[in-house]
């Protein structure tokens, strides 16, 4: 892919917009606040440190790989083709579930504000259609949208935090929840949103330097802002949206605008990331090669496939499960898949670091160990065993798909 056109600020805006911190706090934070209470600010700091470890791994890997594909590319060249495909496969589910969580969160926010004026299905169609329209308008339009909304989200978080902290409130009393790892898992939802930029390495100027800096900057900015707002809200109760509505009411229209558009932007950024991974997999013949075709320098076929998959599946989930259940389940699923692709990146750097760099070896091993521990305990504490079953089936299908793909390739070579 040509046109390396995103500068550092544009890449930061798109990545930070994909993180959608304010909307992520409303989606992931709503669930985490109900489970964790006043422990949530601490969980947010722990989550930021965990994500930062994995972000530093991506920082090191992105300095060696600057092509499209991100985690798929790291695993494909550092590990094996099979693990590359499975990593790409998991990333596609991560991108969908993260985008779906944010879009469902936007619908949830809109539903609260306009009450029952429109049914959920209509709201879903409107927001999914609008986000799909912006994706099809091209990367430049999405980036400009990201630049505006990113600033709006930062402003919303800072103002909300200051107002809540200045108002009279109950003193802070730390309460340790029963499901500490599950609370931390949801808290990871905010800073982990950096993952949408690495698959776009081929479209970033000086990607080997810029991607790593952007990754770390987005993690720290989103993670620390989330800890601040979680601390400010945790002393008021456990209903995140109502706390803002009742205590920052004079700013609620602006907060509503920021959260709604932040969720839409997050969905856009991750669907774009999904398309770039599909494009990279198409180049390596892991999916139909027609998905790697370029139209005016952009992988239009991969974008259309991503939009169709995301639109149909997300609408079906909201229609049959409802908005709140959808973003609750997708939020939990997205964090589990995030940990899996992070573990893949950790192993990729670990393998490359052997006999080369003790610093990278220590970093990758520490990140791997921490991610494994959080993953295992989070799986044990998941709110529904169905999530674990679906995740296991998804992984099995990925390995099965690779084996079938290899058999087909062998049969072609045999008859050529």
Explain the overall architecture:
The protein has one domain (8-415): Amino acid/polyamine transporter I, CATH 1.20.1740.10. It is 77% helix and 0% strand. The protein is built from 15 helices and no strands. It has helices at 8-19, 21-36, 40-62, 71-78, 81-114, 120-136, 139-166, 180-187, 207-234, 240-247, 252-283, 300-321, 323-353, 358-381, 385-415. It is globular and about 75 Å long.
List keywords for this structure.
Amino acid/polyamine transporter I; 416 residues; mainly alpha; 15 helices; single chain
Tell me the layout of helices and strands.
Layout: H1 8-19, H2 21-36, H3 40-62, H4 71-78, H5 81-114, H6 120-136, H7 139-166, H8 180-187, H9 207-234, H10 240-247, H11 252-283, H12 300-321, H13 323-353, H14 358-381, H15 385-415
Helix pairs in contact: 1-7, 1-9, 1-11, 2-5, 2-8, 2-9, 2-11, 3-8, 3-9, 3-13, 3-14, 4-5, 4-13, 5-6, 5-11, 5-13, 5-15, 6-11, 6-12, 7-9, 7-11, 8-14, 11-12, 12-13, 13-14
